[in-house]
Structure prediction request, 258 residues.
Amino acid sequence: MFASIALRAALKSSAGVLRESGALCSAVTVKTCSSALLSGPRVSCVTGSFAVQPLVRHYARAAKKKKTGPESQLSDLPPTMLKMDYTAVPLAQTTDDLVKRLLSLELACHSEKLQLKKEQLIAKVQRDENDRSSVEVKVAILTTRIRNYQEHLQKHHKDKANKRRMLMAIDRRKKLLKHLRLVRYDAFEKVCEQLGITYTFPPEYYRRATRRWLAKKAFCIKVFKEVQKQKAEQRLKMKQSVVTTEAETAKTKAVESQ
Prediction:
């Protein structure tokens, strides 16, 4: 009995020593891990070694490239050019630089530049100086308007109203070019060359082949062949009747001559 009591006391004391040593080891590992985290990325602990990845901060990001769209139709207008209302005024050419800058295209609005561009295109295709209502002039005006709509829709692609106006102008120009091609082909070629227009022919008519349409087409072909066959028989009968009448007239003439 005394031996079992002494054994229990020895076990209790050894368990207490083991608990104290485990707590000491855990404190040591926590201290070493915290010191390693503060010092740098290299971390090694006594119980289960692991490594902490260094923090990556994206301070130097690549700059986004701006999208470069097609060149505008107004880019060939020099900023030193005078506005359309002041080109024929001789006093505007002799004024100082400040007034010239105010009267030039450098401070002009978009509508004034567009008006000047329209006049330039009209001057390329018009028949004479006073021509403002011919088909060529109408095509030049519509071309300026269509290109302006295209540049606007590249920036504001959800503008449905201007897209509809652009499509209507394109249809109108197609009709005018088609009429001009049929009436005056030389003027049609000149307009397309001067304005940089590529004329494309309209697509051929396409109809989806349904069973009903195929049956109707086969029936029409069959009826057409029957009609042609009947006409051929009628023509043959007409030829035979003509031959018989000619033979009868020849026989009557021969009998009368005898």
